[in-house]
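Figure 2 data, in text form.
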Amino acid sequence: MRRIAISVAASTMTLSLAGCGVLNATGDGANASPSKGNDITVGLLLPEKANTRYDKFDYPIIKTQVAALTRKQGKVDYANADASASRQATQMQQMIDDKVDVILVDAVDSHAIAGEVKKAKDAGIPVIAYDRLAEGPIDAYVSFDNELVGEVQGRTLLEALGSSADSSAKIVMVNGSPTDPNAKQFKEGALSELNGKVTIAATYDTTDWKPELAESEMAKAITAIGKSNIAGVYAANDGMAGGVIKALKAAGVTSLPPVTGQDAELDAVQRIVAGEQYMSVYKAYPDEAEAAAQMAVAKVQGKDIQFDALTQDKVDSPTTKSIPSKLIQPTALTKSDIKSTVIADGIYTVADICTAPYKAACAALRLK
């Protein structure tokens, strides 16, 4: 992925557009009229359920934002593929048959979905790639700066190692699914920080991001390297970090090495509080989801000025160049960042995090 312009946060963009009177503008000036009114249907295809963010955050936020942008006349037709590319293809075909007005797709398999993207395009339905960069003739893309996510993970892991970060330090990499283009970018970003500074002693690409596979991969690494010889673990997301930590505990590791993650899942935040997981990456899902809803509605309603303002970045996919995009910046989440990220943004309350098993650890961090 190549970034050409700097993204502006979705909430800031909304305010600036409203202040300039642009939210109701179209691309052809004052005489132009929207191609569709408020009675629109946004098709939303999300990839899996193992990562709890999709049902807990992305879908509800997009649904609420579409309603707000359309005076409660617009609706969201939602389907979750539960990690099945074939199921997602069927779901997308159904949305094409149902003649939804626009499709937001977070692809299970970015390459396999290209045929359905073309079918939608041929049917006159715009397709916006959400969170993962789908192949095919997509109209726009909204996600986080994925290479930067990996850089943040790698850099924070090195910070955790401190003076132990040298070529003798053995790191295990548990990367994401090979069918997810984001996983490749996370890995590339992490390696840009880790290469030459530590030894990558074992590396795995984990099918469908499954925590149970990450657990078995980590068990293999422990057997091959030795449980006392692993200085740290790069786990690409929180679900797999949980699997990694299970394997370390099962092997009798009592002083856990620093383990990375991503997505700021509640279980992961609690593991960070307890000192079991060193860090996660907090990605402001409200910003991403709100931007996606704004882009979808603007595209359907012919508000080209708003759409262009929301997509000031450009990225290339294997099939399409210079895709209008919005890339949102991620934040490292360690013990010291919990208040300023997930609590400040209302993702979780202190009560959500500090349940009975974590009360003492929360008290030590002055989370109250």
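Caption note: The longest helix spans residues 53-69.
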